[in-house]
Amino acid sequence: MNPLLDWLHNGPLITDGAWGTQMQQRGLAPGVCPDFWNLDHAELVEGVARLYVAAGSEIILTNTFRANRVSLEGASEEKVREVNVAGVEISRRAAAGKARVVASMGPTGKMMMTGEIDEAGIERAFAMQSAALAEARPDALLLETFSDLEEASIALRASLATGLPVVVSFAFDSGKNKDRTMMGVTPEQAAKRMADEGASAIGANCGAGPESFAGIGVRFRDTCDLPIWLKPNAGMPVVEAGVISYSMGAAPFAAHLAGLLDAGACFVGGCCGTSPEFIEALVAERKRCASS
Question: What is the secondary structure of the chain as a DSSP string?
Fold first, then answer.
């Protein structure tokens, strides 16, 4: 029995939005790894999580996206453990029983096909991170923004060893229709492989705005029976004077909710460019959809 199905007995759930931009507003300098803030500025990280809970997020993530040993270059095994444990504890405090905590794990940033890393190195990195996260008892693990199907498969295998449900989410940011990952993976390939290998949900995040995510959701739905996790960006990024901004506001973003739900989405939130205001808009739009 898929444990995530119990979460959905009252219908689709609203997750959270972007974390990095929120921490930048609190002083995180460009190029600084945000995950270390779990140890150095825990109160600021917790403030971000609390804003999402207050906005209506029923699931919040953790500030651990880059907290694998490969991405945290030079960090000791104990430091990796501390960053991950602290990340879950921070989100758990912020959730205060009002939201579930799903621990975030991003890719290593290294490519097997170029020889930067091998399968064993990837598996060690994710086994170490997932074990540290599981120690702090999140409700589930999330592998997010993956583009390489093989890396996602290795990460999933390592994460399943914790006994926690695992969501696997890919970034479909390539191809003329933004329906391929950077490595050429299609929604069908991702959904079938992850379902066959034991994931509890399949998803898409980052890469594009909500207008392309309904189509991805339908393709997931037509390929497997897993719950669907969707977290689009706030439109496409715009760079002005070296500053990145996003083109879509909270209300236009939330207006896509009905289409995402019709496409089969069970979990909906936002990725880059979104904020607590976007979550408030999604919560309000879900209420409007339910009453119409």
Answer: --THHHHTTTS-EE----SHHHHHHTTPPTTS-GGGHHHH-HHHHHHHHHHHHHHT-SEE--S-TT-STTTSTT--HHHHHHHHHHHHHHHHHHHTTSSEEEEEE---S--TTTTSS-HHHHHHHHHHHHHHHHHT--SEEEEEEE--HHHHHHHHHHHHTT-S-EEEEE---BTTTT-B-TT---HHHHHHHHHHTT-SEEEEESSS-GGGHHHHHHHHHHH--S-EEEE--SS-EEEETTEEEES--HHHHHTTHHHHHHTTEEEE---TT--HHHHHHHHHHHHHHHH-
